[in-house]
Amino acid sequence: MEKLTFYALSAPEKLDRIGAYLSERLSRDVARHRYGYVCIAMEALDQLLMACHCQSINLFVESFLKMVRKLLESDKPSLQILGTNSFVKFANIEEDTPSYHRSYDFFVSRFSEMCHSSYEDPDIRTKIRMAGIKGLQGVVRKTVNDELQANIWDPQHMDKIVPSLLFNLQSGERTESRSPSPLQASEKEKESPVELTERCFRELLGRAAYGNIKNAVTPVLMHLDNHSLWEGKTFAVRCFKIIMYSIQSQHSHLVIQQLLGHLDANSKNSATVRAGIVEVLLEAAAIAASGSVGPTVLEVFNTLLRQLRLSVDYELTGSYDGSTNIGTKIIKAHEERQLQEAVIRTIGSFANTLPTYQRSEVMLFIMGKIPVPGMHLALPSTGSGFRSLISSFLEPLLSFSLTEDPEVRLLVLQILLSLIDRHDNRPKFSSISIISDISVLKLKVDKCSRQDNLFMKKHGQQLYRHIYLGCKEQSSGRQHYETLFALLGLLSVELANEEVVVDLIRLALALQDLALSTDEALPVYNRCAVHALAAAYLNLICQLTTVPAFCQHIHEVIEVRQKESPYLLPEDVFIENPKLPSSLEKVEGDVLFLQSKITEVLGGSGYNTERLATPYVPQFTDEDRLSKRKSIGETISLQVEVESRNSPEKEERTPAEEITFETLKNAIVDSVGMEEQERERRRQVVEKFQKAPFEEIAAHCGARATLLQSKLNQIFEITIRPPPSPSGTISSGYGQNQSRSVPIYEMKFPDLCVY
Predict the structure, then answer these.
(1) Bigger pLDDT: 538 vs 188
(2) What gap in Å lies between CA 306 and CA 263, rounded to an integer?
């Protein structure tokens, strides 16, 4: 062997003949089953290959690959493994000169086939499969960086390589579940097909460039489809964890986009399959680096929301195509609900990876996808800043609090609490009760920032109005009132300055007036609940203001109620079986909180007495016009109610015009008449161009063109003022010389001046 190696290095031109001779000998020995000589020939080829790196090695490699192919085609497992080991050694060699005509198609096919070996002996079967995995790893290493080779990322190759690796990953999971003994595991762990497969798979994905991600991931999706592996979730999640951790982080969004596309493609598949894909998306989003959802952020949420809506439709209709034919698949409602929960969790996971400003935009996008009659949501531009995004989100969110469905109203209030609560104070307002000393709540109160003050100045009245209208709802129950109390409490500790405190006290007193009013036709329970809510909140706010006289008045009223009217306090209202009177007629005297008394005691502490003395009146907007609470008469006669001149609630604006039935009627009639005239004019124009002779149409168009030209000439005369023209002055019809501005394109220049 030493002499042969020395000879090959001394005379490189003889290397191809040496390879051809050894190849011929090996083929003959394989045919004659002389396997000892086969091993000797392969060992000789391996050593020559490792030693020689001259330019003429290409022809020798052809002979070498021909021999490896011969071994891999053999039925003997030992020869297949021998050929694979030789190929792996060759794959690790960096060649000095490129090869233009070498093909690895056979090796991809054969190694993939070995990965699926079903040999009877389990030990030999494992060795063959491992040899196949090593062979595929060698092919990838040899071809992935060589632009002159066949592109290993082509679907024809990936569709063989990736499923072969996944098959071994999956079969390895089944054998591992049998839990071998610790000693066996420690010795065989290094040679485990699963670990080898995972390492090979990670290496393959790690080498994938931007344009190759799709070809590498598509076979994974097809394999999981073909073998129904989405439903189990575990293996699918494991595969995509490997993918997400192995590819370059800037390519993560490509994988997520493919998963979203696959989810859309399986829209009419069973809920368990869709839930499996969504679960994988959830894990992928958690692994993806912050903000790497990609350039199409809204597309991600659009797809997930579409799947959520489809699932709800399937659950309601009972079929995937909206019909009730016998041949349609049976929808399992509980599976659809599990899918819906998975989609919602995934939306949250995606949103968690986004920066704050994009989260606000996503909330707006989701709100825009929820159908509300009469409401059109426009997304603001991202450049308008965080506060404008929150402001834009607040308006549509509060619009939902006016809907008929009490569950929707409750959900909206809970979302609002989550947005306002920045110091985890929400759990401390979980129930309504009269607390004699609020220090036991351990509330976290910070001084309001300038942004908080601006926010409340702009949106405070809107929040107060929706709290008032929420208490006015006849369908509101215990949870609604508890959530409204929590909202009042959070506003007091999170966003309240002196002006906001005054407004909140006025709002609480207005709620008391609402409960006393008989015009609203509120049930007894609701009236008692509003009284109790106002009492609990005034008890809270008086202790936050730390004005002794204010606290004394509130506590005195509460004590009177405890003795005479316990049904006006939360402890007797917000319980399982509240003991309420049959009617609520005579609520007066000492059981009521007095606006005059509160104004007096707070005025002594520097609060705005004029504002405190002004009863709170909610501002009604167009939302109420679209809401079911407004009657037709109220809608037609809208009139803005102007408060006192010094009230900050009144913005400086011109007085609103009173809109009466007559003005609305005239506006409607006028608009209808104008529409009719416009429609008739269009009809005449179309009819003219359809029926008039060509000469008439041409004359009409020519006249318009002449008119346009004359107007343009007038404009040019006015705007073009060049230097004096060589043509000098012109003579007017009355014999007078008149200067004229000659356009440049009409000037006559001597020939020598023209270039």
Answers:
(1) 538
(2) 10
Please, is 615 exposed, middle or buried when counting C-beta atoms within 10 Å of its C-beta (0-12, 13-18, 19+)? exposed
Q: Say what the pLDDT of residue 735 is.
A: 45
Give dist(CA 111, CA 135) in Å, integer. 6
Give the pLDDT confidence score for residue 652 in this predicted structure. Answer: 41
Taking the domains of the chain in order of start, what are their residue ranges? 208-371, 386-623
Sign of CA dihedral 698, 700, 706, 708: negative
Convert the pLDDT of each residue in 92-131 to its tens digit: 777 665 565 677 888 899 999 999 988 888 899 999 999 9
Residue 669's pLDDT band, with cuts at 50, 70 and 90, is: low
Query: From CA 171, how far away is CA 176, in angstroms rounded?
Result: 9
Strands 730-731 and 737-738: antiparallel
Cβ contacts of residue 111 below 8 Å, gap of 6+? 84, 131, 132, 133, 135, 136, 139, 164
Cβ pair 454, 437 in contact under 8 A: no
Residues 6 or more apart in contact with residue 3 via CB below 8 angstroms: none
Tokens of 498: 């002196």
Please name which of 383, 385, 272 lies closest in space to residue 337, comparing C-alpha atoms: 272
Structure tokens at 314: 């399937």
Pair 300, 263: CB distance under 8 Å: no
Beta carbons of 511 and 530 less than 8 angstroms apart: yes
Pair of tokens at residue 642? 């102007």
Angle at the Cα of 752 (from 749 to 754), degrees rounded to 5? 55
- The H-or-E segment that residue 732 falls in is none
Percentage, residues of the chain above pLDDT 90: 24
Task: Give kind and range of the element (H or E) at residue 298.
Answer: helix 297-317
Q: Please state the three-class secondary structure of 421-453 as a single string.
A: CCCCCHHHHCCCCCCCCHHHHCCCCCCCCHHHH
Distance from C-alpha of 95 to C-alpha of 112, rounded to nearest angstrom: 25
373: confidence class by pLDDT, cuts 50, 70, 90: very low
Structural contact between residues 493 and 444, judged by C-beta atoms closer than 8 angstroms: yes
Backbone angles phi, psi at 650, to 5 degrees: -90, 120
pTM metric for this prediction: 0.60
Which residue is it, tokens 């045919």? 31
Confidence of residue 721 (pLDDT cuts 50, 70, 90): low
pLDDT at 447 over 50: yes
Q: DSSP character for 211?
A: G
Alpha helices by DSSP H, 318-405 = 333-352, 356-369, 386-400
Sign of torsion over alpha carbons 405, 410, 413, 414: negative
Write the pLDDT tens digit of every residue in 265-308.
998 888 899 999 999 988 888 787 554 555 567 788 888 888 88
Angle at 93 between CA 89 and CA 95, to 5 degrees: 145
Burial 29-57, CB ≥16 within 10 A → b, else e: bbeeeeeeebebbbebbebbbeebeeeeb
Which helix or strand (DSSP H or E) is residue 705 part of? Answer: helix 694-719
The DSSP letter of residue 650 is: S
- Cα torsion 456, 458, 461, 465: sign: negative
